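Cont'd.
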Amino acid sequence: MFLGTYQNKIDDKNRMAVPAKFRDQLGGKCMLTKGFDECLYIYTMEDFEVMAAKIAALPQSDADFREFIRDFFGNSELCELDGQGRIKIPQNLRDYAHITKDLVTTGAMNKVEIWSAETKADFDLAKKMKDSKFTDKLREFSI
Amino acid sequence: MFLGTYQNKIDDKNRMAVPAKFRDQLGGKCMLTKGFDECLYIYTMEDFEVMAAKIAALPQSDADFREFIRDFFGNSELCELDGQGRIKIPQNLRDYAHITKDLVTTGAMNKVEIWSAETKADFDLAKKMKDSKFTDKLREFSI
DNA sequence: GTAAAAGTGGGGAAAAGTGGGGTAAAATCT
DNA sequence: AGATTTTACCCCACTTTTCCCCACTTTTAC
């Protein structure tokens, strides 16, 4: 399970250090994809395979599905971690997540989310506005 | 069951000694999470698993649920107690609970609450103000 | 009062994070 | 096709952070 929040940077060569806590679970390589909410997702190979199989099975006769399939696979990338535990983030994904320099990396159960620090800050602020709803939801699941 | 209230400190290396009374029940490690009311919770591994399993089952297609999952897992941390029975509190959780130096640690049945001493004092005062009799009496003498 | 346990502080080795050089491969241009 | 430029990738170096361990102080228990 991926847990916790980390600050990190992308360098001039578009490399990002994967937080050390996540590396063992990924085992040297991972799938980097476009996430919801203007962030990127890192999946383990196994989880990605499961998703990919489901998505590939969607009926290609439907135009919406075709677009979705194109979007999903076109914005997925197999990333191998280098000797320092870093992955390279390609331009199309950097653009999508507005990534320039400072990042926030968050464990979200079965995936890791990569955010531009600025985008995340804006998003969190917006979230705060509707925070009471949130707390109520948390209460439902608390023990 | 976790019982009792303890004063303690966080040191310059962001470590907090878990009150000795709680250690046996935690068994060397615990889950540290964001709580309600600007405090942190310590759960046993077992209790956390129960909550996590429920939350993991939420549909990721719903934006609110995605935020919730991100918030919950991103602000959870597996903490191993060091040789002195201390855990490290990460920055995101310190920030959330306004933790700088002095802490109050309270057993709350199935979880342990960690408060910044100042935040707890403010919270207790605010609670006192809400006590109707007290407030009414205060009104008589207020100017 | 004494011994044991709990709490607190800090040194130092190891790991993680970060930046950059150099070479090979790929792409582009003429 | 050959030459030139760009990109990728492996490796090394430096800085920062983490974590293990030891030592001292304070509290608790008998």
